[in-house]
Amino acid sequence: MDVENLLSTASEEDLVKLRQALKPKSKYQKKGVYREKENKVRFFNPDEFEKFIYAVSPKWRNYYWFLMLTGLRYKEAKNVKVGDIDFANKQIIILKPKGGVQRYCHLSSYGVKLIRQWKMSENLKEKDMFSFPTIQHLIQLMKRVCKDQGIKDYPDFSVHNLRKTHENYLLALGKDEMKLTRHMGHTPKTAQQHYLSSAFIKDKSQLDKIRTWLGDIFE
Question: Which candidate, 94, 90, 122, 84, places its Cα nearest to that of 217?
Fold first, then answer.
């Protein structure tokens, strides 16, 4: 049977598999270290995040709190110095953002309190960074803890899911989308495409947890 006849009789499912097989592989797929996510918009609901964060050892916990409470990309977070944080005005100046345009990342009172405690416990000075481990270490630990805690879709989780979690929480609280867009450092189109699932957070107890963590972020 020639190729044209074969394609004309193939099922839609077979055609999808064929297109996927013929798609060029990235360098990560070739090395066998890349896995296509099944759920690309997954984020922690508040109960899941609470379960996750308190199952992480105290040594690592501050890194995950910092990423969730700020919504920063990993590379932005690892470049933050203590002196970049304006605790009085609850904001961080991001000097090395994606795209190269400096912006301010806002903090909640809860975030300010946690980062201050971290700074004091490590005796960090203005010029110091927070000594983030590699992104690979953070991802591996996250997956392992999520699996141990029975959190659904744990193979799809990475550090970027904390950024998705942060933004979805702010959307669930009804925060101003223009402020949110500037705070996150991306376009409105990106926000609309990737962060719509916050509409599923309706439970009062879940919303109360979000308010505790991020409720006064733009105030």
Answer: 90
Q: How many angstroms separate the CA atoms of 173 and 183, rounded? A: 15
Which pTM was predicted? 0.80
Cα–Cα distance between 81 and 88 in angstroms, integer? 16
The contacts of residue 96 (CB under 8 Å, 6+ apart) are 75, 76, 79
Contact 67, 77 (CB under 8 A): yes
- How far apart are alpha carbons 27 and 33 in whole angstroms? 9
C-alpha radius of gyration, the chain, whole number? 20
What's the confidence (pLDDT) of residue 142?
97
Three-class SS of residue 20? helix
Half-sphere exposure of 52 (CA within 13 A, CB side): 30
Q: What are the CA-CA distances from residue 36 to residues 40, 161, 168, 218 (Å)?
A: 9, 15, 22, 35
Question: For 154-185, what is each residue's pLDDT tens digit?
Answer: 999 999 999 999 999 998 998 988 898 899 99
Which helix (H) or strand (E) is 22 found in, with range? helix 12-22
The closest of 151, 124, 145 to 61, measured between CA atoms, is 145
